[in-house]
Amino acid sequence: MFIQKVSLFVALSMGGIVTAQAADKMHDYNFQDAVSRAVADGTLDGSVKFYLAGTKSGGKMIEQGAVTNKKTNGFAKSAESSCDHVLRSALIQLQNTAKEKGANAVTNIVSYYKAKETKSTTTYQCAKGTALAGVALKGDLVKF
């Protein structure tokens, strides 16, 4: 009987953890400020420029619809700190992919969380739950 109660408690507790992780809250943060900080501290090398949808167009299209979907440990961290960290991971991946393919910019960037596009000319979206934070971006690789 005692073991059954303990097992039930553990099962209910685990269900609570899964529910808490699934309850992501969406946050919007200034994209250009985050990119500028990442270039200034050397996280990004500055060789690839990043433009949200509606802020820059033109150039030769190298690849349309490049996607990055990054997650980071957000446990006991602020949403702002976690989101900045995971955005940097997403931008590093886009920077490296752009350079590998001969592009020098990523344009038409949209937030792409759970494959749902959210366009903004100023902000990116980040999902922050109890344990994880995530940023998904989609953009076009171009050469200016």
TrEMBL record:
Leader sequence residues: 1-22
Keywords from the named record: Signal
InterPro entries: UPF0145_dom_sf
Domain of life according to the entry: Bacteria
Protein name: Excinuclease
Source species of the chain: Acinetobacter equi
